[in-house]
Design goal:
homotetramer; Alpha-Beta Plaits; Rossmann fold; 2 domains; 8 helices; 13 strands; 31% strand
């Protein structure tokens, strides 16, 4: 007996008449059991985006080939099986996001397998060990950024991670490191970007006297805190919240936003288009 | 028979032991019927803030004098009657915030009397006239900023407004103009500041691909969009919202935020402390 | 030269394979300029729902006929032009929702033409008159419900309204009255239904000590406050908010929710399915 | 050297003139280092509520005695040290709330020491063990409610818990059991009460077609889901969310709401007044 798998088609191409008809024609031809379809045309830039989820027992190579035939030349098409992603989580001293991911993993809620946790400090070791997951301490001291990233890549290499999740990692990567994981590094920043880019956003928020704080999950690109935003959320604060209190209260919104982002990314619900994302929730 | 009035005491001073006891002692001495008290100590800067609301038939001069005697030298004390403020609303082409204020005024919900509406365009005239309020068109064309502001002040002068409310006014004031209304100009900016300062925040938001938009009400200072924030709110958006749709959907959050700010300011619930506000809601 | 119109197709039918392909085939055949499509399958009840928006100069009769041919027998299909709806607003003493609708109408934001305002009290007359709209006072006193509704229908009849909007109308209609406007009466209830059905929801909320209050826009059916919900929103409150304060603060959420509901309904974005709605936002 | 402790005074009494002055007089007399004060008068019922937080090295017996002397006869006064509460968490099959509490405990964020976890199923054992906390399985099968509760009390007895936290416990307690922990059992209910009382609130929410779901933390009283509400929150949903999806998405709001409630309760920020709570946030 063959197993039933969930599969996803992601399409991004220039818009033209009849695309949905053509695409659904291919799905019909293969008798796919389509369970979800969503499409979006960005009329500003005349781009067409579509996500199709279907169930099926067999391979999906034919579908992708057939779709390429009927779609415009420069189309981005991806057909893949929905299965738990292999990921590595990178952390630093703050452990609430890591803990939340470990918990979701332990209760089967995370659409990923956490292969390992990597950190530049020892803080996360005990928590990670509680969940029987390998923890790697990759110290920074005395190393240049290149040397440190080389060490990192050495540690990551055996795990072959599909995605890196930066759960409050707090270090900037070089362009060459990021190129190893294009659109596959998800970061949580503890502000509603583009407000309070960079270090100590809660101190910045206190200084400015804002009445809301927030968190932003985004893909990492070479420009710090400038990558395409996946999802954001906020909480109200008031004059009585100093930076420490903001940090404490912000933890909950950070962990919810990061978890939501991983869910969206790992279920192939996010398409990147320049600096923007199309998110089929 | 004397009328019963609502009065407010606002206090801001350096913190020291026993302040609340001393202050409430004065209130007791005058047999004031206190209905609300709120206090806050900012331990970072050792500042004490308090708001007291009381009902009483007579004058309040004695209270203020007595409070000054017992409080530290550089204390800011203000005792005043809560009564509808005399305001002038300044607008431009976008009329939703103006309309909302007019409506609240008409239904008795606004804690203010709108003496007049002033604009650099004619767009708001018809709407203002529906509510039997004077409308002044003060054109910009051909005038330097100083000349235009001189014209504005000439128009404002007979109304002696306590507050100016910028309901999407879209022009920057000179420092000298602002000095005529210190902490008495309230502006609505259509972004969650400090994100998207300046012109066309919705275009900026689209460019950056954010997943939330918002509005910020703040006091106007010489630095554009940098004044102390009174209140902020946001709404979620997604990839399908282009700048036009954001502008349309943003209108509701703008008008709610501006109305809320006027309510807080006109009820003496806002204390300014540097770039921050203490808001006793 | 023929005018370009916006049109909407709404489809609800039992789910089967290939529906989207068939439907988009018809659209292609007619060379329609489709600008938005959204579809949803409720797998629990195997129902398919779709909304298509297209621009076109000519009539739409052919499209509807053609769609009927290819779709299952009991399909609900509706093809119509998107144009301002003719509505009548019914109010009572509370005027904030009426005011908000009038304002949106005046600034061209409402997808409707307010033909008239009808009330059982005189309170709304002055406000309505400011916007040059007919106001009808239909008193209740001394009349049975049937008699009052007969009077109402007499007043409504010349306007031939497509929709009735109950902007805090506060009276219950008989089944026979509702049958005159099936799925065409939109009500705002000042609670997050199903909490606090019936009279004085803010008093009920105070009694129960809830920490949030809200508003619900729904279609009116014969069961009080039980009709299909179109949209809802909430605001946080605390122990200091008594019923009067809740009523005051609730006004803003009520008017936003009602306005949003009219927008969704008048743009044909809402499909009713039993007690539930499918809302293509 | 004596240690510096945080202490809290909670006062609830009938309102009268000069209370704050009298109370702060006592604090002054004892030279207490007051860091937070909040007070509230419910004018509807003429009740006065106050919370004072102060730092001090010595005992607090004198303060409580002195306050009793100057306050009305039936005053509720409580002076106590702020220290981690000893709690027992009760769970059932759903583990997300338990996991979140364990995580906060492990990272030092929870103002409590989790002495043990108790369940009527074995599901939570593995997760609890990861955090080196005793887990007790107290089966229900074959036992009457009284017998089961007797077993429970036997298991709880050696821990002498100050509070019981029901982290999705899903069973109703008898009045006599609840009397053993008056205002000391905190429950999380997975709806925005009073909507959807009782079993399967997400199924009820689906049936009713609501557009928001939520969670409510409340003290447990003899009336199911009727106890005083501590805090509530909601998330928006749409037609595409079936009960399973609601349950999945609801988990995050449930765990945030329960964690927030424990924080408020364990920091002595919640006063119960009949069916309502005063929450000094």
């Amino acid at each position: 007996m063959k197993a039933i798998h969930k599969n996803v088609v992601l399409i991004a191409c220039s818009d033209q008449t009849g695309l949905i008809h053509k695409i659904t024609g291919v799905l019909l031809h293969y008798s796919l059991n389509v369970t979800e379809t969503e499409e979006f045309v960005d009329h500003t830039i005349q781009r067409f985006f579509m996500r199709i989820q279907f169930e099926g027992e067999s391979g999906t190579e034919g579908v992708e080939q057939e779709l390429r035939k009927i779609l415009p030349a420069s189309t981005h098409v991806h057909v893949g099986r929905l299965q738990p992603r292999k990921i590595v989580v990178l952390v630093s001293k703050e452990l609430h996001c890591l803990g939340d991911l470990l918990l979701r993993y332990a209760t089967g809620e995370l659409q990923a397998e956490i292969s390992a946790v990597v950190s530049q400090t020892e803080d996360g070791r005990e928590l990670t060990k509680r969940f029987d997951i390998p923890f790697h301490y990759v110290p920074v001291r005395g190393l240049s950024r290149e040397e440190h990233e080389r060490e990192l890549l050495k540690v990551l290499s055996p795990y072959q991670p599909e995605y890196l999740v930066l759960a409050r990692y707090m270090r900037i990567f070089s362009e060459s490191f990021i190129k190893c994981f294009p659109e596959r590094i998800v970061n949580i920043h503890h502000s509603f970007l583009p407000a309070f880019i960079g270090k100590n956003p809660y101190d910045q928020a206190y200084e400015r006297g804002v009445k809301i704080i927030g968190a932003t999950a985004h893909f990492v690109t070479e420009n710090l805190d400038e990558g395409p935003i996946i999802t954001q959320a906020i909480i109200p604060i008031n004059h009585a919240d100093d930076p420490g209190e903001m940090a404490r209260r912000g933890q909950d919104v950070e962990k919810i936003v990061l978890a939501r982002a991983t869910e969206l990314v790992f279920e192939d619900r996010v398409l990147v288009d320049g600096r923007r994302t199309i998110v089929f929730e």
